[in-house]
């Protein structure tokens, strides 16, 4: 799905990503994890073209990402951020269908697609008419997910999507989200600093520190065969409940 | 032998100086700017004249000017009568804001003729020529110098209206003041002097230094308010014109100019030379003012306007009918006719005012919103754009108006240009701020959807900035309605016209005829934009009730 070759990025003197080669394969769920400032968010932002890497190339579905190809590529990615990133001047329905409308979908097609997604994300139909300020945090996040899914992109990118939710709401949404990713068979890449969330979503976990990938593998491998002391320390610091 | 290059130099100096003679704009006018303005101004005016000539009909047109005091307005009406009687279509741009405005307008062809005074011509209009060594002491020397500028100067109209200092007779008596020299002994006196008298080369500063009067107790005020100040003893000394009707009415003492400071101010007609070739019969008709009006007749006419409340058209026509045995139709002076005039004036000034505001505001919106958008996208551009429009906003409105005259002449166009510039800042700043306050996450959300940059702006950023943009437009509209009243100073009409006339005639009702509708229009604009905001702004952005 994504192939990054020799990608690096500095902000001023600070190198947030050291030269990195990495691939994200089709159908896999990958979780990027690590402390603040480790470069995980920057890597995700490189994937959607919000950050221009200093060196290296990004290939998406086999094609090089350039300013010419970026627009079409973004329409084949769903990107979800904390609190949904909704447009406050549009209703939930308008938020979800903005891009489809822009691309010329007719009204019935848009409506049936939105109600299909509302079923999938378990969003009450009544909420579709509301503006973001009138919705709960969980609803806003569901709408954000629906908006990302609207054009049925093959890949979903999440930047700490549950960060702003309380534990109960988060628990439900995590379940729903995993189900959606599995049912629709999407490739997904998620940034989080929550070990529990990483284990729950990730077929594969990629741990970063100081702009480098320290280890990648299943959560089990990270726990039982840590690449170095740092991995162990990070995992232990998370207080994963042992039952 | 004067070389050709020297002549050239003289000419450029002349064209440079004329547009910037008003001191208040000196500070912002650099040498190259004035050259640019002069060149552009000449071209615009020339182009405009070419247009008006190409569509000229058989009836000759005549444009008369007058200054913002009653004597000048009466004389302007008098010239208008004479021109109409000779078959011309006459436009009287009355109550223009000062010698420089009229002189520039006369030179550029915005007006064809007006009446000025020999002292003013010598001290103001030809001051530059005098400084370069030309002799302009006598009237024939002035006539010669003006002819070089294609302006004809007539013989005297017949009266000398010089500046003088006036005090209330009783106050002057009590203090024993008869001559200007006596003022030195009374540093406690409060002075109320007109703007023009303060600014003139033969005005206060030179007078004070000649007579050795040292005082800081000076307030500048409108000439007509000066009389009110005297009556209420808020001031004790003011500048007067010797033909002012108020001198007798308020029992004022004109102080003797014992050091012969003030030059003589014989009224003369200034007329463009091309009027004589274009329509000689109209030009000759205007020359009938030569020797027509002696001092008593002049102050008599002024008194009829100022003290009896007759309008200038009537007074001037009545005078011509009795002096030259003309048979002019005079406007009625009955109460009914007066009310009709009030109603007509309200309609006319409202339309004029709306026109000024609507056109300037529309243009400002069309320019300011794109400027705001560009600024929001580029911080370096923002610094320049916001800096420039802020500086424009700090210019005194009168200075900005005067600045527009060489470019656009007189009338609504320069007023619209000035109002346009004033309206830019609130709209540019609010567009910029409205776009800048959109959270980064929201902007990025629009970007990662795969929207083109243009569509991000149209579908997300502008709708989110709309409340801010609209409130900028609302501010601009309200400022605009208020500022448009000064357009009357350059003949643009609007609610400023009755205010100006009202100040000149000390007529509170006339002032209110301009001030009340102007206030009402501002309130209406505020309300209308409030409604528009409710309608246009997404409910998602409005405060939840």
Overview of the molecule:
The complex is a heterodimer of chains A (243) and B (545). By secondary structure, chain A is α/β, with parallel strands linked by helices. Chain A is 37% helix and 26% strand. In chain A, the strands form two sheets. Chain A has a six-stranded mixed beta sheet with strand order 6-7-8-3-9-10, with helices on both faces. Chain A has a four-stranded antiparallel beta sheet with strand order 2-1-4-5, with helices on one face. The longest helix of chain A is centred in the C-terminal third of the chain and has 18 residues, at 167-184. Chain A is globular. The model of chain A has no long low-confidence stretch (mean pLDDT 91). By secondary structure, chain B is an alpha/beta fold. Chain B contains 24 helices and ten strands. Chain B has helices spanning 4-17, 31-54, 70-85, 99-108, 118-125, 127-131, 139-147, 169-175, 195-199, 204-211, 223-231, 246-249, 273-278, 280-286, 295-306, 312-323, 335-377, 379-394, 397-408, 412-436, 440-448, 453-483, 496-504, 508-536, and strands spanning 61-67, 89-96, 113-117, 151-160, 163-168, 191-193, 218-220, 237-241, 252-254, 266-272. In chain B, the strands form three sheets. In chain B, strands 7-6-8-5-9 form a five-stranded mixed beta sheet. In chain B, strands 3-10-4 form a three-stranded antiparallel beta sheet, with helices on both faces. In chain B, strand 1 (61-67), helix 3 (70-85) and strand 2 (89-96) form a beta-alpha-beta unit. In chain B, helix 3 crosses helix 16, helix 17 packs antiparallel against helix 18 (379-394) and helix 23 (496-504) packs antiparallel against helix 24 (508-536). Chain B starts with a helix and ends in a 9-residue tail after the last helix. Mean pLDDT of chain B is 85; it is low at 1-56. Chains A and B meet through helix 2, strand 6 and helix 3 of A and helix 21 and helix 22 of B.
């Amino acid at each position: 799905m994504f192939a990054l070759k020799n990608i690096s990025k500095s902000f001023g003197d600070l190198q947030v990503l050291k030269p990195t080669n990495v691939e994200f394969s089709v159908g896999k769920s990958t979780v990027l994890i690590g402390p603040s400032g480790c470069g995980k968010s920057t890597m995700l932002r490189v994937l959607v073209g919000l950050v221009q890497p200093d060196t290296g190339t990004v290939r998406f579905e086999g094609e090089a990402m350039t300013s010419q190809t970026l627009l079409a590529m973004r329409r084949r990615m769903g990107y979800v951020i904390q609190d949904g990133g909704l447009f406050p001047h549009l209703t939930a329905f308008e938020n979800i269908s903005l891009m489809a409308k822009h691309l010329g979908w007719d009204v019935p097609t848009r409506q049936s697609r939105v109600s299909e997604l509302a079923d999938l994300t378990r969003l009450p139909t009544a909420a579709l008419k509301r503006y973001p300020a009138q919705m709960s945090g969980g609803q806003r996040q569901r709408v954000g997910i629906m908006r990302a899914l609207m054009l049925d992109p093959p890949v979903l990118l999440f930047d700490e999507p549950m960060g702003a939710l309380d534990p109960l709401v988060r628990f439900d949404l995590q379940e729903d989200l995993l189900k959606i990713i599995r049912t629709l068979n999407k490739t997904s890449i998620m940034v989080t600093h929550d070990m529990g969330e990483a284990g729950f979503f990730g077929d594969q976990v990629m741990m970063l520190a100081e702009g480098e990938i320290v280890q990648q593998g299943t959560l089990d491998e990270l726990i039982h065969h840590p690449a170095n002391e740092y991995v162990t320390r990070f995992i232990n610091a998370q207080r994963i409940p042992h039952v | 032998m004067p070389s050709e290059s020297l002549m050239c130099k003289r000419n450029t100096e002349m064209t440079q100086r004329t547009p910037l003679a008003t001191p208040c704009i000196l500070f912002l006018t650099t040498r190259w700017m004035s050259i640019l303005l002069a060149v552009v101004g000449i071209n615009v005016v020339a182009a405009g004249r070419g247009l008006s000539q190409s569509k000229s009909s058989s009836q000759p047109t005549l444009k008369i000017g007058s200054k913002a005091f009653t004597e000048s307005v009466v004389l302007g009406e008098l010239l208008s009568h004479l021109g109409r009687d000779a078959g011309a279509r006459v436009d009287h741009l009355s109550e223009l804001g000062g010698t420089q405005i009229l002189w520039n307008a006369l030179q550029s062809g915005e007006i064809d003729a007006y009446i000025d005074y020999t002292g003013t011509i010598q001290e103001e209009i030809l001051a530059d020529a005098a400084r370069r060594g030309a002799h302009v002491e006598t009237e024939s020397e002035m006539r010669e110098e003006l002819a070089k500028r294609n302006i004809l100067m007539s013989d005297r109209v017949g009266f000398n209206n010089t500046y003088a200092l006036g005090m209330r007779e009783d106050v002057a008596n009590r203090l024993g003041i008869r001559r200007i020299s006596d003022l030195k002994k009374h540093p406690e006196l409060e002075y109320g002097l007109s703007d023009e008298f303060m600014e003139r080369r033969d005005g206060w500063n030179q007078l004070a230094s000649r007579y050795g009067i040292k005082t800081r107790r000076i307030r500048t005020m409108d000439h007509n308010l000066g009389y009110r100040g005297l009556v209420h003893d808020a001031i004790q000394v003011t500048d007067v014109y010797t033909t002012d009707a108020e001198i007798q009415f308020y029992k004022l003492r004109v102080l003797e100019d014992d050091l012969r400071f003030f030059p003589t101010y014989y009224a003369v007609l200034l007329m463009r030379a091309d009027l004589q070739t274009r329509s000689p019969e109209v030009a000759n008709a205007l020359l009938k003012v030569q020797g027509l009006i002696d001092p008593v007749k002049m102050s008599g006419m002024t008194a009829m306007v100022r003290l009896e409340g007759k309008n200038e058209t009537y007074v001037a026509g009545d005078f011509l009918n009795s002096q030259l045995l003309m048979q002019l139709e005079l406007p009625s002076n009955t109460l009914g006719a007066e009310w009709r005039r009030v109603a007509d004036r309200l309609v006319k000034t409202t339309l004029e005012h709306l026109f000024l505001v609507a056109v300037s505001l529309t243009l400002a919106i069309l320019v300011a919103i794109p400027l705001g958008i560009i600024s929001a996208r580029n911080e370096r551009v923002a610094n320049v754009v916001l800096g420039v429009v802020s500086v424009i906003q700090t210019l005194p409105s009168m200075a900005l108006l005067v600045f527009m005259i060489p470019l656009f002449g007189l009338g609504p166009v320069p007023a619209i240009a000035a109002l346009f510039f004033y309206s830019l800042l609130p709209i540019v700043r609010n567009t910029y701020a409205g776009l800048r306050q959109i959270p980064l996450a929201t902007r990025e959300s629009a970007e990662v959807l795969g929207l083109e940059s243009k569509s991000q702006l149209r579908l997300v950023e502008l709708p989110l900035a709309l409340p801010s943009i609209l409130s900028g437009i609302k501010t601009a509209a309200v400022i605009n309605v208020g500022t448009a009243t000064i357009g009357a100073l350059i003949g643009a009409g609007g609610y400023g016209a009755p205010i100006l006339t009202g100040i000149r005639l000390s007529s509170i009702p006339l002032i209110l005829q301009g001030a009340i509708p102007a206030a009402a229009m501002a309130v209406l604009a505020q309300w209308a934009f409030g409604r528009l905001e409710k309608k246009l702004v997404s409910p998602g952005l409005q405060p939840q009730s």
